[in-house]
Amino acid sequence: MTATSTPIGDPMPRWDLTGLFGPTPDGHEALDAEQSLRLAVFHLQELYDRHDVHARTNGTGTGAAAADQVAAFDEVLTTTNQVLEQFLRLNAYAYAHVTANAGNDPAQQLLSRLQAVDAELSTLRTRFEAWVDAVGAGDLVRLSDVARDHAWALHKGARRAVHLMSEPEEGLAAALGITGATAWTRLYDDVTAGITATVEHADGREEALPIFAVRGLATSPDHDVREAAYRAELVAWDDHATPIAAALNAIKGETLTVDRRRGWDDPLDPVLEANAIDRRTLDTMNAAVDDVLDDFRRYLFVKAEMLGKGQCTWFDLAAPVGEVRALHWAEAVELVGDAFAGYSPDLAGVLGRALDEWWIDAGPRRGKVGGAFCLPVGGGASRVLMNYDGSIDAMHTIAHELGHAFHNQTLRHRTPVQRSTPRPLAETASTFCETILTDQLLARATSDAVRLAVLEASLHEACQLIVDIRSRFLFETRLFERRRTSTVGVAELCALMDMAQAEAYGEALDPSARHPYMWAAKPHYYSSTFYNWPYTFGLLFGLGLYARWREDPERFRPRYEALLASTGLAPALDLAAGFGIDLHDPGFWRASLDVIRVRIDDYATAAAAFTTPSP
Ligand SMILES: [Zn+2]
Hints:
Blueprint: H1 18-21, H2 28-50, H3 63-100, H4 105-135, H5 137-143, H6 145-149, H7 151-161, H8 167-179, H9 181-193, E1 196-200, E2 206-210, H10 211-216, H11 223-239, H12 241-261, H13 268-275, H14 279-306, H15 329-341, H16 345-356, E3 360-361, E4 373-378, E5 381-385, H17 392-410, H18 416-419, H19 423-426, H20 428-444, H21 448-483, H22 490-505, H23 518-521, H24 533-551, H25 553-565, H26 572-577, H27 586-608
Parallel strand pairs: 3-5
Antiparallel strand pairs: 1-2, 4-5
The structure holds zinc ion (ZN).
Zinc ion binds at residues 400, 404, 427, 430.
């Protein structure tokens, strides 16, 4: 059985982008919107010039200076928000078209032109933050209502301004970034969207599939299919490793160069600042993660035993166990809908709206990017891309991405600057929704076999978010260390990845069957720095909040929605404190991980009661 031949829904729903800016990115509506955006950016630049929005060498940050500037400040921030709103909607439209079909040239061209607009806006943002820092963020917040509504963003921007290069240098970096890291990222996307891997089936049949469809076969119940897909994948990555490694080296090299010029020595520091997480919180979380690795190894050994092995290989990690049957799209959507309805009608309502208004592009296709994402498109609405393959994991993805859509809806009355959410909090609603789904499925499980399959899906996900992300964090830390002195070749990238997986998975993963090309397979390395750990944070924070919900559902719901609506207004440490959670307390993280430890115990018990049929 392969994912592509599974009757999971034919045809799979495709999203409707027409309502945003017309049917095609080179149509009148989109071109008019682009022209209107360009004009708005031009006027915004004039406004910045007229009010002399720059860092001031004589800036004193006194109340008197700020008082003179309040009217100008209000106009500048309000107009900036309006232009950002225009940009974000059109950019989402172009991005959605490109990711759904890499061969859509008009969309590629529109996205490319918008990247130039983005660079101009980024330059203005830099000027704005330097200006706020010079005038005095604290004084502005005291004197202006508009500033008060954006207080946290202003203070954050002012802190960022301390690490800015000179204005012309920042402008040059933003402009060169289009032909630098941004171009490398697009190369990565375009190359990987076009990669085909040839799977050699046990019966001698050869099947050429897009690489991300082959990666989807990792969840096949058939051992031979998984192994064939794994081997085909490694060959395909190896064949395309040179341009991908060039992209990785260029992107990480540019990060180091620009960071250094901005006065950041450790590339993790600006990431922590941007994510609004202090190092003590990250260290406390990572220490708790290191403590739970042995429990995950226990889970993987039980899993290996059920698969008839002494040790898991890479292509066993995502193998389903227990009672497995491909879920039809409509069935998966109904189960997610029931789970959401068990939390609140509002949450279920978002799923209903997503289906009624065609927000979701569900199935895998050649030319479509892998993975899944949720894109806000304005007015609290979203568009969701996924590669649904009928597995329980894929059903989790529906819950996850719709969690983002719910979050987008709670943010609908915020300005773009207020909506800007650090990633650790951006993953709260998504992981919370997945936890709701798991609980609902466990409650409905009618046999050990089903129970086992549900626990497996949940633990596999947790293993990814905790153990695998630990390996990615170790890999990226060392990649940056190595990249400081020279470029890093394909063989060394593979060796670094192999070592990181050895440390995170330990003896539970067969050393001869790890995945040394995960640096090529994961798109995040190509668009972001230390992208993944906020997902670990999101999972553990979401589990902590989930425990609070179970204690007192009625009181929890409005406070939780208020938290989601405030994710751009305060740091996680403060928002957590509102729920009586101290992120510096190892006990909080341990309690969240204990939820997973209990699931591992349940898994071992269910496994003992269940005899696995031979593969
Ligand atoms: Zn997410």
